[in-house]
Specification:
EamA family transporter, transmembrane helix, AA-Vitamin_Transporters, mainly alpha, membrane, EamA_dom
Length: 280
Amino acid sequence: MSAGLALLASALWGTSDFLGGSVSRRLRAVQVLAVSQVLSALVLLVFLLVTGQLAHVRAGAWLGWAVLAGVTWAGAMGALYTALARGTMGVVAPIASCGMLVPVAAAVLTGERPGAVALGGAALALVGVVGTAGPELSGTQRTPASAVGLAALAALLFGVEVYALARASETSVAGALLGMRLSSLVVVVAAAAFVVRTAPPVLGRDLPLLLALGVLDLAATAAFALASASGLVSVVAVLASLYPAVTVLLARQVHDERLSRLQTTAVGLVLLGAVLCALG
């Protein structure tokens, strides 16, 4: 069950990253984050109210971890969306996903011991994720060095965010989701206030896409929180970080971004690594 939820999170994150990168080519990244976060926070509050879970949320050990997850997520998404808007999605997304190394290393150092098959699958998936960047990893005319640098920053922040979310989910999944969403909302809305005067307007036609983006990210976060609460973080984090394969394939279909033979092979390695992680 935890492996399935982690893979679901990966698919949803890959789709939301594709949408976010596409919208960020017209709007500022901080605008995309602010509006989508407001909409997704409203969806989460309504869900928790309707299901009665909000009444059971109490301050506890999850709070600090949830706030850390929200703040680092906001910074990571800002860097990622800007990088996706500047460069090739098939290059940026794989670099950003290498943040999986942070929670994996932290989990192993704190006592988790995944099996040899799972570790082999994780290593294979990591090679595949990096390989999907293809020969453009060092930066090209289509993918400038600034986009590569922003993707690397996003990777580091994502790694901290994923580990913090996993720790918060150990005591309260609902609290972790709510605390992370509200803290990230504060950060992105405050950042948006500084650019609103010079940014292009958010039009009515943008709202459905931004709502879909926010809901996809919220659903992915919930799936990962549930997966990490019931499985090994060192394995779950890898499975949830395979989303670049989804982003790459969507970019190819929608934006006609061509994949090299190396990138196509790398996507296959990602899928094989995911299977091994799940079996392990």
